[in-house]
Amino acid sequence: MTSAPGRRSSIFTRLLRHGFTDPSGAERLLDSPELATVRNDPVLLDALGGTADPDLALHGLVRLLEAQDGATDRQELLDTVIAAKPLRDRLLGVLGASEALAEHLARHPRDWQALVTYEPRDLHPGVEEFERGLADAADPVALRVSYRRCLLSIAARDVCGTVEVSQTAAELADLATATLRAALALAEADAPEDAAMCRLAVIAMGKCGGHELNYVSDVDVIFVGEAAGDADEDKALRAATRLASHMMRICSETTVEGSIWPVDANLRPEGRNGPLVRTLASHLAYYQRWAKTWEFQALLKARPVAGDLALGEEYTAALRPLVWQAAERENFVADVQEMRRRVVANIPAAEVERQLKLGPGGLRDVEFAVQLLQLVHGRADASLRSGTTLDALKALAAGGYVGRADAAQLDEAYRFLRSLEHRIQLHRLRRTHLVPEAEADLRRLGRSLGLRTDPVAELTREWRRHTTVVRRLHEKLFYRPLLDAVAALAPGEARLSAEAARERMVALGYADPAAALRHLEALASGVTRKAAIQRTLLPVLLGWFADSADPDAGLLNFRKVSDALGKTPWYLRLLRDEGAAAENLARVLSAGRLAPDLLMRAPEAVALLGDGDGGGLTPRSRASLEQEVLAAVRRADNAVQGVTAARGVRRRELFRTAAADIVGSYGTESQPAEADQGALVDLVGGAVSDLTAATLAGTLRAVVREGWGDTLPTRFTVIGMGRFGGHELGYGSDADVLFVHEPREGVSEREASEAANKVVAEMRRLLQAPSADPPLLIDADLRPEGKSGPLVRTLGSYEAYYRRWALVWERHALLRAEPVAGDEELGRSFMELIDPLRYPPGGLAEDAVREIRRLKARMESERLPRGADPKLHAKLGPGGLSDVEWAVQLLQLRHAAHVPGLRTTRTREALAAAREAGLVSEEDAEILDEAWVLATRVRNAVMLVRGRAGDTFPTVPRELAAVGRYLGYGPGHAGDMLDAYRRTARRARGVVEELFYGGL
Questions:
Q1: 689 closest CA partner among 722, 640, 645
Q2: Contact 961, 334 (CB under 8 A)
Q3: CB neighbour class for 975 (10 Å; exposed up to 12, middle 13-18, buried from 19)
Q4: Number of other residues whose CB lies within 10 A of the CB of residue 824
Q5: Cα–Cα 20 to 30 A to 904, which of 106, 206, 324, 804?
């Protein structure tokens, strides 16, 4: 049909105004013969404009009219559409939202009549109504057609807003229940002998069990079977398995009418590796002995739906008590949270931001948080035992387990996200949880949710708003009511009982819940601005504390820091306003004793944890540290004040390094844990070594200045040895050094020696004097003649001794020598003196190699502490630090004269140079490096956790768990950590046997 230009323009404009995106195409469809009698009816155009996608609705209507059997049926449909508003809204609403249901109507053109009835019972159908709707299905194909017809009525009520989202989800679950029953009946009709032999109960799990199903979802089930009458149990179970398998195929297989949905039985005991059907006794035995935490969480939604309902009720009655004991399991909260983290980690990176169900701030966050609270408190409060998320959330709020405002926000967000999920799936009836990217899809979704002004922008804004709310609340939900339990609330506001608060603290891993609640009360009670800010911070901090191995210590330390700094204007503002500061503080305070002890001595160091001007957690260079220390010494009135200032800088910088190490090892919500463990080892070793050097430089300047003014009678230098010279100091390491002096012109040897010895004695005294700052122990035992020799020697004395008397072990020790403080020229002269000794031009003689091997063997047998497990001793055990270092150092002594890269004091650098020179294979070098890094990390972890140095894993379980967390092992995996250490050390020992004890 050809339209006049004016009319065409008018219709075109009207179509645009009614939301059509292809008005030309719509105009052609309106001109089709099927719509000849109603093309100008404004009722039709208005109704189409009210749909999610007017173009799609019009196209579906034309297809449906074309499919009618003759003009009479077509006219009947048109007359009903124009005259009956309920039918018009339902039919066009479905056609504008779902291509898949439009396709169904085109294949089954009389099914539109299922939308005509408009009675109270039609508005809220249940299982019985759906069973009647499926009753005529005599085979799987007919069942699919009947299922889609019932689905059509649910979708119509949904898109028209007749029911809200939770009712739609419940109806979908009821339809699934009726469908499972119909499918089982078909299976039993095909195998009556099997049906007579067994009792089979179908237990719905997941969203179907929770009465909150999606349009397209796997229907999770568990099967329970028993023998009927006197039937043999084994035969009865085989019969039940055949029936269950057949029922699953009826629902899952694709026919000419498509499929219904997959039936998934993988939540059963042992998953897909376990039998499909078990007896009740077998189920019970499994859950009592073997079930993991997540399996009890899954049972929250278990509900008998088909088959032998009496047997199903016996199943749920038998397992229900076990569900409510799950929160008493060790590491319960950590297990649940770790499972959630694994789910997020497994989402493809390209999908994370579009994942409506599994992504951060998605549906699963709400469900996990609610289920976690149910499991903790449901044992004592039966009102919390609903399998439906929104009902459970309502009950949690009513009982004070969740703040009412938080619950209301989560309820709103969950309803929005579920509505969006429903509309996404309804379009093509495909199982997806991804928000589409195409603008046309987003426009349809926005309009379907009532967002008509700018559907795409409004939908995106609302979606992001709700995911942000969920993201912010889903963990806080667990912790905030703990504060309400100890703080003053508005009249009438429900709150946790003392017992419920205690239960929650135990579930979180607090060993002393009473003390923890007292700390919360002290921090959060009152009406001051300080208490109000604490109430905002603590819910999140409690979550981070609970993520550690010692939540009690984290909370106690936070209270101490807050007591010390609470009156300063910047402290709480820093934690509230700077994203990283609060999380960094929580990690540091709950990771062990060392960092909190350092912080308590000067709490203002909290400022280092922020993003602002505190310098952050990046260790400072040796030059900048020396500059600060020497400036502080210059300002001091005497040596004591100067060294006190230097030790204060050392304490602050030790805290900075420890905090950086902890945060890097644990990771944060915005920054994953450092994957390169060697980088963390190098960070600590370099930072602590630089800090020790700067402290010695400042102490030397302070002592010289007080005793002799600007110039000491003798030039004086400090040579770092051992780990100090190798830039590999740990938190608890002593400073191994040699002292060298050289009399100035005109000064006698005796006067110079006396001055040098006085300097050393005073330096050691001041650095070890009792103080709020940790002492720095100076160890000079690697000097010539060891403890029997003089503390300080002249350069000439060193030269004479090394020329005549140097033993192999002394040449070996000099491999790590490096000037660290004092006269730089004298330090260089000392290096020139010892280089031929430690890098002998001809390598090592055979007798020297044998002597080194003998010394190593003697050290292994004599120095290992009595009772220590050699396989877990990080320093002296097989494959530990000593093994790797001696192997590398033997290579240096033998080859450094002609391999310049080996002339380094650092173990990892020397090992890399040996690999590049072909002295060690690539694989062996990696094995040794991994073992050395791991052993160093273990020693650092022990010091961080216990506050004192140690070379073996702690025996106290909580301390061992804390070491595990530092090394990247989650709760309950300390055994895995020890096994991994033994395995790594064993491999390294094998390489050392070949490199160190093999041939020349």
A1: 722
A2: no
A3: exposed
A4: 11
A5: 804
Q: What six digits make up the tokens of 573?
A: 């503002």
Q: What angle do CA 479, 482, 483 make, to 5 degrees?
A: 105
How many CB atoms are closer than 10 A to CB 176?
Answer: 28
Residue 613 pLDDT exceeds 50: no
**Both tokens assigned to 945:** 């956790």
Helix (H, G, I), strand (E, B) or coil at 592: coil
Predicted confidence (pLDDT) per residue in 74-90, tens digit: 999 999 999 998 899 99
Bridge pairing between strands 735-743 and 714-720:
antiparallel
Give the Cα separation of 792 and 759 in Å (integer): 10
Q: What is the dihedral of CA 65, 66, 71, 77, to 10 degrees?
A: -10
Separation CA 142–CA 185 (nearest Å): 14
Q: What is the mean pLDDT of residues 750-767?
A: 96
Lookup result for tokens 């939900």: 477
| C-alpha–C-alpha distance, residues 859 and 866, integer Å | 13
Q: What are the structure tokens assigned to 766, written together?
A: 């001041």
Banded model confidence at residue 122, pLDDT cuts 50, 70, 90: low
DSSP one-letter string for 516-567: HHHHHHHHH-SSSHHHHHHHHHHHHHHHHHHTSS-HHHHHHHHHHHHHHHTT
- Whole-angstrom CA distances from 241 to 180, 235, 306, 584 are 15, 10, 15, 54
3-state SS record for 115-126:
HCCCCHHHHCCC
H helical segments located in 191-279: 192-197, 206-209, 233-252
* Nearest-5° Cα angle at 563, 561 to 564: 65
Please give the backbone phi and psi of residue 933, each rounded to the nearest 5 degrees, phi first: -60, -45
CA neighbor of 494 nearest in space, from 333, 377, 385, 324: 377
Helical (H) or strand (E) element with 198? strand 198-204
* Spatial separation of the C-alpha atoms in residues 95 and 249, rounded to whole Å: 30
Tokens matching residue 248: 């699953």
In whole angstroms, give the CA distance from residue 143 to residue 184. Answer: 12
| pLDDT at 998 > cutoff 80 | no
30 vs 114: CA distance, rounded Å: 25
Distance CA 183, CA 188 (A): 9
- Indicate if the pLDDT at residue 1000 is higher than 50: no
Q: Is the pLDDT of residue 153 over 70?
A: yes
> Which amino acid is located at 523 in the chain?
L
Token duo for residue 216: 């397209």
Look up residue 164 and give its DSSP letter: -
Residue 126: how many other CB atoms lie within 10 Å:
14
1 pLDDT band, cuts 50/70/90, is very low
The DSSP-derived string for 54-65 is HHHHHHHHHHHH
For 154, the token pair is: 């649910």
Instruction: Tell me the per-residue pLDDT of 267-306, one tens digit each, with 9 for 90 and over.
Output: 999 999 999 999 999 999 999 999 998 999 999 999 999 9
Closest CA to 872 of 958, 733, 983, 964: 983
Which sign does the torsion angle of CA 959, 965, 971, 974 carry? negative
Which among 136, 169, 177, 129 is positioned nearest to 150, based on CA atoms?
129
pTM: 0.74
| CA–CA distance, 728 with 566 (Å, rounded to integer) | 37
The residues that bridge with 742 in the sheet, in sequence order, are: 715
Contact between 653 and 622 under an 8 Å Cβ cutoff? The reply is no
Rounded to the nearest 10°, the torsion over CA 333, 336, 342, 344 is -100
What is the 8-class DSSP label of residue 620?
A: P
pLDDT at 184 over 90: yes
Q: Is the dihedral angle over the CA atoms 308, 311, 317, 323 positive or is it negative?
A: negative
Distance CA 748, CA 860 (A): 45
Question: Under DSSP, is residue 720 helix (H, G, I), strand (E, B) or coil?
Answer: strand
Helix axes of 42-49 and 71-83: crossing angle, nearest 10 degrees = 70
